[in-house]
Amino acid sequence: MRPLKPAALTSVAALSLALGSCTTMGNIPGPTTPITQSEAQMGAEAHPQLLAEFGGAMTGPHAQYVEQVGRNIAVQSGLGNAQSDFTVTLLNSSVNNAFAIPGGYVYTTRQLVTLMNNEAELAGVLGHEVGHVAARHSQRRQATAQQNTLLGAAGAILSGILLGDSSIGQQLSQGFLQGSQLLTLRFSRSQELQADELGIQYLNRAGYDPHAMATVLASLAAQNALDASLQGRDDATVPEWASTHPDPASRVQTARQRAAGGTGVTNRDTFLTRIDGLVYGDDPEQGIIEGRQFIHPVFRLSFTAPQGFYMVNGTRAVSINGQSGQGQLSTGPYDGNLDNYVRSVFRALGGNQQTLAPASLERTTVNGIPAAYGTARVNSGNGQVDVVVFAYEFSNNQAFHFATISQAGRSGTFTPMFNSMRRISQAEANRVVPRRIDVVTVRSGDTISSLASRMAFDNAKEQRFRVLNGLGSGDTLRAGQKVKIVVRGS
């Protein structure tokens, strides 16, 4: 989580619409049409905003390797004639995400890269995203929505979630979703399958094993299921990448069939060697999640999510999600007046569609920290909901706030979280170190159990190890094989 200006809550939604453009179905280019001048301009304008939203661009050997592989696969699309026509970025984000935008801009997060097990899988994911751009899927989704008059405002690209489909529900939902980096156009199943097919074509052209598309989709599905289990959810298709690339599990078999008979390189050992040392999970500079606890060593704060809730750490906010509500922790410009700060957050959540203000403001102290809070009851498509903003003054020029949504009368679910906010000592902050990928060679006598025991987690070590390395329940290891483990290191 980095500082967030409350007035910027709608920026990514507006950006999503801009990327979709106002094209009509009649003049959308086909999969083999090169990058147009307008697309190049669109991508150049959007690129800095996307970097800011998704943790920024990484540099160094890891980023250079991803760029090399990405440019090689992207040029197979015919969007550009030279690798220099594409900008490929490794993002410093702890969510599993990848995307591409018009103009030759291709992105993957470091977290998604750590889930992969060979270079062909990396090329397949990036090729899939390029396939969306080559087929002009975002334009088609936007054009269809406009023709059906379904998308009148940025917030309408979102599902209603807890709040239904009312305008205030859409506005509030987009503010909360943005904190967990879930705001992009959702593609249809047919578009996903077409992007998979194009990605497989690109793999074949580049000399990679086309089966890599199926194996990376299988790993992603396994990771989604593991996340759901660890977070106590029943739905394994909710997490980040699956929010815009629905149901990877159902696409695995189709990808296998389309790759049948194809051959090529995977470059497994090269890939593992090149990603060795890559940060896994949260970057301490953006705060870390440990179970239900969030700790930010830079801002020197910590809080605990309510029982039964799970968190996702985004670039600009930490989202807190559960069956009985959702919320986010963020920060913004602070002039020294907590009451003004709380009111400004309410105004930002209401946006241009509805004036939102607390019924009253209360002052309190939480673990020695001056605080203020207010509640607004809002009518939504699914009935009334309570919106709470709870703000804390950490210094004369720094404040943080929770914004939560729950069904009317049930905002008390978040009270333990509000009361858990505390300052941490410098010594506690110094103990927060990142997790990293450590690539090791299996020795004689090593087993999945023995290697998994070295994983830097308190629970589900073997399950995490298997998913990380694409290992099924019946798979075993052989001496000389390279595998990934997650360790703590500076």
Automatic annotation (TrEMBL):
One of its GO terms (molecular function) is metalloendopeptidase activity. Its cofactor is Zn(2+). SMART domains: LysM. Residues 242-263 are annotated as: Disordered. Gene3D superfamilies: LysM domain, Metalloproteases ('zincins'), catalytic domain. GO terms for biological process: proteolysis involved in protein catabolic process. This is LysM peptidoglycan-binding domain-containing protein. It comes from Pelagerythrobacter rhizovicinus.
